Amino acid sequence: MLNLVQRVSKSRNAVTLRGFSTSSQTLLGQNLTEKIVQRYAVGLPDGKEVHSGDYVSVKPRHCMTHDNTWPVALKFKGLGASKIKDNRQVVMTLDHDVQNKTEKNLTKYKNIENFAKEHGVDFYPAGRGIGHQIMIEEGYAFPNSVVVASDSHSNTYGGLGTLGTPIVRTDAASIWATGQTWWQIPPVAKVELKGRLPKGVTGKDVIVSLCGIFNNDEVLNHAIEFTGEHIEELPIDYRLTIANMTTEWGALSGLFPVDNTLIEWYENRLKKVGPNHPRINEKTLQDLKNNLTKADSDSYYAKTLTIDLSTLSPFISGPNSVKVSTSLTDLSNKNMKVNKAYLVSCTNSRLSDIKAAADIIRGHKVAPGVQFYVAAASSNVQKDAEASGAWKDIMDAGAIALPAGCGPCIGLGTGLLEPGEVGISATNRNFKGRMGSKDALAFLASPEVVAASAILGKIGSPEEVLGQKVKETSEVSKSITINKKPEAAGDAAASSASGVEVLEGFPKRITGELVLCDADNINTDGIYPGKYTYQDDVPREKMAEVCMENYDSEFGAKTHAGDIVISGYNFGTGSSREQAATAILARDMKLIVAGSFGNIFSRNSINNALLTLEIPDLINKLREKYSGSEKELTRRTGWFLTWDVSSAEVTVTEGQDGPVVLKQKVGELGSNLQDIIVKGGLEGWVKAELTKA
């Protein structure tokens, strides 16, 4: 059976149900995320209007893979596929390990290039640029469309009004073979950007502030829609930076509206690419103007987060965490020495970023003992930077040029942090050890602050370089509201959900005793030990035996086939190993319930036929029940959960026939997703589809 994650939006102190399945009679309109998904969903029943919680099959406008293209190709071939369904849908770029000139890597790159040529796929070689930047420059990421990539920073496309979201390799292979994959529409959070940005405060400061201020998983596994009275004043490059780092904030997408600022950006882009570009041309631009998509006035958002931009000052993220942000003024006063500075990555290496850094660094030199690494987001960006003189200004100051690509942002190639060093970077992640040694400190900042710090030899501000007065830090004004779904809308949703068709071969009801694994952040190594991950010949019996042993050595003795495991928040965080899902299946367990799931675990579960439900209320009730008891890592509860698929409702009772503890609506499990379940997972479904062709 396939794992379909029925999600409920959560805050630790307040819960909003995700998953009201709605129909054309619902009293709620659609938000922008739902409208775009509606446009790209396939196989919907007539009149079906999609909303958060619903599982849909989607046919993305485009799907990008990068250095991981070859593993996807091997999986594609393993499915029995020989021809890409729509070669105009697929884009392949080489961008991650472009400094690696070993025979092994060059052979992989050549294999990818040959595969792309064989299938007539658009291909961009190493040195052309970072895949996300290419998707933007070449118009693959286009407003009001769904665009996916097998990379976590697909969220970047949201800066262009594109619903960009990451997929895993099996999804990519499915899209190559059939043109489509699945998505569960997440809870949608509205992020209201009030006021105007002060001078000297950038898009990077906005997202670093959001990550640091709202740092308790407020938007974990949500789709985000940005709004604001003055949002049209935000440059597109700022929007791209903000959308890019919604990934680090924990969101699945970060969507800006299509407005006059974006239309003007495309008009300027059209002048650059010329009238005959296949994706950015007069027709596509006119179609965009004629079909502007906006959220309905009565659309629903699970929560609303508000931040007043006028109260922001430049902020620094870190060290070694995006959940820690400090004002630049406070950090500058500490005179923290810098060893390396970086202006690289898909976050802040566009032309405007390079120009902004050049404006600070012009006429100065990089401080002794500091290495300043610069790589443009693409070869086109570098050409434009060279033409403007900004590239020369930075090189003349003593910066070190790297090829257009990812490089040190992901710990590859030249310039990694050594033990004891301090780095300041305009990239998106400063996880411990990501950019080099785990014994180094990594901070994130805007291009301007990175350039200033490279010159000063310490974390410092542009004002210090330019001899201006340093801005004082003010308290940031922010708020968060949890929104309840109107009762009338819930009634309409319940009416619609009561008629869910259940396919032959799919169970109408799933029942089992709840077994409590009372912990948050149980990672994939805890579920399936790393020492077995790369052993391809581990039998099913052994997988069942070692399942959860790194979490609790008594798990195997306390659980039985047919049990339903319930755990805390962010279950399945960590690595992308698929065995975390298949090991649970090996124990013949029907279902996993949690407060929330790691997104990669969720996708791997779906793709490998493991059912899951995300119900924060239930884990909270169980924790309350056992709050005074001795701690047990694994505990049989005597509570039984029944999921009625046809009515999209979960009921929990004390004992099999005892009093009801919880009754709750969940997202509709449509027949298209049930079909994947019946086929044993996404790979089985793809193979079945290929036999029809």
UniProtKB/TrEMBL annotation:
Keywords carried by this UniProt record: Amino-acid biosynthesis, Iron, Iron-sulfur, Lyase, Lysine biosynthesis, Metal-binding, Mitochondrion, Transit peptide
Requisite cofactors: [4Fe-4S] cluster
Known EC number: 4.2.1.36
GO biological process, one term: lysine biosynthetic process via aminoadipic acid
Catalysed reactions listed for this entry: (2R,3S)-homoisocitrate = cis-homoaconitate + H2O
Annotated Aconitase A/isopropylmalate dehydratase small subunit swivel domain residues: 489-617
GO molecular function, one term: metal ion binding
Pathway where it operates: Amino-acid biosynthesis; L-lysine biosynthesis via AAA pathway; L-alpha-aminoadipate from 2-oxoglutarate: step 3/5
PROSITE patterns per UniProt: ACONITASE_1
This protein's GO CC annotations: mitochondrion
Pfam families linked: Aconitase, Aconitase_C
The record's free-text note on cofactor binding: Binds 1 [4Fe-4S] cluster per subunit.
Domain of life: Eukaryota
Major localisation: mitochondrion
Location of the Aconitase/3-isopropylmalate dehydratase large subunit alpha/beta/alpha domain: 35-457
UniProt record similarity statement: Belongs to the aconitase/IPM isomerase family.
Entries under NCBIfam families matching the protein: h_aconitase (TIGR00139), PRK00402.1 (NF001614)
Function: Catalyzes the reversible hydration of cis-homoaconitate to (2R,3S)-homoisocitrate, a step in the alpha-aminoadipate pathway for lysine biosynthesis.
PANTHER family according to UniProt: HOMOACONITASE, MITOCHONDRIAL, HOMOACONITASE, MITOCHONDRIAL-RELATED
Listed name of the protein: Homoaconitase, mitochondrial
Species in which this protein is naturally found: Saccharomycopsis crataegensis
